[in-house]
Amino acid sequence: MRVMRLPLATLLLSGCGLITGLDDFTVTDSASSTTTTAGGGGGASGTGGQGPAACPEGHADCSGTCADLATDPHHCGTCNHDCLGGECQGGQCQAFTLVEGLAAPANILVEDDRLVWSDGDRITVASLDGTGQKTLVAGPGVIQRIAMDALHVYWTNAGTGEVTRAPRDGLGPSESIVSGQLSPHAIALHADRVYWTDPSDGSVRSAMKDGSATLTHASGYGQLRTLAVDGTSAYSADPATGEVMKLPLGGGTTVILATGQADVCELALDDTHLYWTSGSGVHKVPLQGGTTVTLAESDAYPCGIALDVTAIHWTEPAAGTVMRVPLEAGAAEVVASSQLEPFGIAVNQTAIYWTDLTAGTVQRMRK
Question: Gly residues bias located where (predicted)?
Fold first, then answer.
């Protein structure tokens, strides 16, 4: 049925004569189910057909939500950039405490949906938001370093002389896979093997991930406390000589990649370069050897190190800062300041995580 309402002063209808004095007239057409009204305006109710009101000055329309990009933690700097629980200041997400009340959290790892950190003689696994915490081990001994693959978390224990692992979902017991070591320290995983250093005899050793088939790849160096591994070589730094070294896993001549490197704290590598933090800054060198490049100078003893596809991140415990710089060099940027003693650091696609030894916390900040 069609209904038409028309504003007319007069209307002549066939066979009905002249009708006068009508402001509105409704015509119904039974062949249509629509009603058309003339007069009274059109468009969206209350808008005169102009659409939704514009956002106030200083705000952006984020899919129908007017957001202040300088302060909105769900739209920080740009629409839909969520600070994951942190505040937004000046369009930048801020760090916030994810876990607190720890004794002395040191190492930290993040992979897929798991966050793992060491705290004295304890190792804890949790979801990325810090919830669902499960203790993998609680003493005895001294946890030195940790590593993680898709199934297990591995760690070195200098107090017991063991390399140990536990299911990373926290649903099974820990197991010692290698024992009888003097003082195992740094640890790394590659393919089906676990590697570690022992500063007591300056060695690099490995075993299958179940602890079988132990090999010694190098020995007789200084107190090797750092380690990175790829398919053919192990990389470490000798604090006695200040040398950063490439040690062939299958035997052969050691390659000195860099010299004059005092107080090397941690190593990291990608497909083309080795990176490290030292008492003088953050550096890189090609894996095949070449010129050492200083990415950032610092006298604040850079330590923890983590890479993503575009940048290298590190902690400066002495300065209380977390920093980053592009992998291809550029200006260093302060990620977070006013920390007490940031130490270990890890990154994934969306966030940066670090431990604070003195504050006893795990921090997170959206990239």
Answer: 38-50
Per-domain residue ranges of the chain: 1-13+20-37, 65-94, 98-366
For the domain spanning 98-366, the CATH number is 2.120.10.30
Helix (H) and strand (E) counts for the chain?
0, 37
Could you give the CA distance from residue 130 to residue 73 in angstroms, rounded to a whole number?
19
- The pair of structure tokens assigned to 20 is 């006068």
Contacts of residue 350, Cβ cutoff 8 Å, sequence gap at least 6 = 84, 366, 367
Residue-wise burial string across 29-65, b where 16 or more C-beta atoms lie within 10 A, e elsewhere: eeeeeeeeeeeeeeeeeeeeeeeeeeeeeebeebeee
How confident is the prediction along the chain (367 residues), in pLDDT tens digits per residue? 444 443 433 333 334 333 334 344 333 443 333 333 333 333 333 333 343 578 999 899 999 999 999 999 999 999 999 999 999 999 999 999 999 999 999 999 999 899 999 999 999 999 999 999 999 999 999 999 999 999 999 999 999 999 999 999 999 999 999 999 999 999 999 999 999 999 999 999 999 999 999 999 999 999 999 999 999 999 999 998 999 999 999 989 999 999 999 999 999 999 999 999 999 999 999 999 999 999 999 999 999 999 999 999 999 999 999 999 999 989 999 999 999 999 999 999 999 999 999 999 999 999 9
> Could you please report the per-residue DSSP string of 240-309?
TTTEEEEEETTS---EEEE----S--EEEE-SSEEEEEETTEEEEEETT----EEEEE-SS----EEE-S
Cis omega (within 30 of 0) for bond into 184: no
